[in-house]
């Protein structure tokens, strides 16, 4: 019973960290990366659709992405979605493809990106703590209803707290690595 609760909590926390890694992968650090466009949703005939599902994305140069859109009527919607995103890029098109030219990151933009990284990291930490709080409440309920003993309660609370602390350390390590990647010229 106790191991099942710890394992499920660990799994939920790991999924939260996986989401953070995915979001941070979408932040650019000097190079054009097709992964940057995966999280941008386009209103395609009333359905939010990721850009990679609307066309082929290629990287002809280190700082350029080209989107060959399958449905030419979707080009304005894709451009609008890119402009609304946090990429800070203005797309251009020739009627057939959309080009995204990534400027060199200046010091100010790098610092802004670091702030975004820290914000996402803090959101992830809050999510981890929320999972911990939910599990702790469940442990207390189980103890009150005599499903588990007080010794089990104490053991579980200690294990969950240690797991939470370990996850927070892992998040800090991920944030430090991403910050270093962004700030390196």
Explained architecture:
- With 185 residues, the protein is α+β, with helices and mostly antiparallel strands.
- The strands form 2 sheets. It has a 4-stranded antiparallel β-sheet with strand order 3-4-6-5, with no helix packed on it. Strands 1-2 form a two-stranded antiparallel sheet.
- It is elongated.
- The N and C termini lie far apart (51 Å).
- The mean pLDDT is 87.
Structural class determined from secondary elements: alpha+beta
Radius of gyration: 22 Å
SS field, number of helical segments? 4
Q: Could you tell me the number of beta strands?
A: 6
Strand percentage lies at: 15-25%
Q: How far is it from the N-terminal to the C-terminal residue, by CA? A: 51 Å
Query: Taking all residues together, what is the mean pLDDT?
Result: 87
Contiguous low-pLDDT stretches (5 residues minimum) are none
Described by its quaternary structure, the protein is single chain
Shape: elongated
Helix content class: 55-70%
Return the string of H and E elements: HEEEEHEEHH
In a few lines, what is going on in this structure?
Helices cover 57% and strands 15% of the residues.
């Amino acid at each position: 019973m106790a191991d099942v609760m710890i394992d499920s909590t660990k799994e939920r926390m790991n999924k939260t960290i996986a989401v953070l890694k995915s979001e941070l992968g979408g932040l650019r650090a000097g190079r054009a990366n097709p992964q940057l466009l995966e999280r941008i949703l386009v209103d395609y005939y009333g359905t939010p659709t990721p850009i990679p599902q609307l066309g082929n994305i290629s990287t002809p140069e280190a700082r350029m992405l080209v989107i060959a859109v399958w449905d030419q009527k979707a080009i304005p919607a894709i451009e609008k979605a890119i402009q609304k995103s946090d990429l800070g890029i203005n797309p251009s098109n020739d009627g057939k493809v959309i080009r995204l030219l990534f400027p060199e990151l200046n010091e100010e933009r790098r610092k802004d990106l670091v702030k975004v990284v820290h914000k996402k990291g803090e959101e992830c930490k809050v999510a981890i703590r929320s999972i911990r709080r939910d599990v702790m409440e469940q442990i207390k309920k189980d103890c009150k209803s005599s499903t588990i003993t007080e010794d089990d309660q104490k053991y579980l609370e200690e294990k969950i707290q240690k797991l939470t602390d370990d996850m927070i350390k892992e998040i800090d390590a991920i944030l430090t690595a991403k910050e270093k990647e962004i700030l390196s010229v």
